[in-house]
Amino acid sequence: MKRFQEKNIVVTGAASGIGRSTALRLGEEGGKIWCVDINEAGARQTADEIRAFGSEAEASSFDVTDYNTCKLFIDSVIEKWDVLDVLCNIAGIGGMKRFEEETPERFQSMLAVNLHGPFNLCHVAIEHLLKRKGNIVNLASVAGVIGQAYTASYVASKHGLVGLTKSIAMEYGRQGLRANAVCPGAINTPLISNFDFPEGIDTSLVDRYNFLPWFAEPEEVAAMIAYVASDEAKYVNGSVMTIDGGITSG
To answer: What residues are paired with 88 via a beta bridge?
Structure first.
């Protein structure tokens, strides 16, 4: 399939995990991919892999939590590519901590990357996406759909991202722009290693978050993102799509 031929796409978090798999998948399907990650070497490696199978790719490294930097980046994308069709906000951080041991600094850091970052890029890219009747795919989490013990900061950031996505979808849907949230459960990525259980917790509160006895692979999430971002999903707007093995089913 070449669903993204002549499509210009920005993918954040492209150095590893779901972001990398998404950038590769969309590039394999003919898209021009701008790989973004705080890990510059990783972003460049992903871009090199995309070029290796014949698609165009660029790479940039910057902090998505800085609004002005995000604006300068999108300006540079438009200067080079003229247009932008798809924005995939996949960069994120996570982790577990007892709520009473949480700190304001850690809470703000989680919001900054997981919520402010997508807001920044959506805000500075929206005028360009509207011109192309493009779309936004935000990577949230099952933590944006349900409550989870020992992850209050992460849950708050992902619930906020789901709300942001729905609001954008409602405000701009009639103008032809779509926005959707993809919500993975347990995925075999480097991020999952940050979710170490605090000592002495009630494990029965978190056992339910792994309904199936295995993790999904990032390529499976990338496949869902590819569908949502494609023209095949032109009637999919404001959706919150889980890929979680059934965690949120009951």
So the answer is: 11, 137
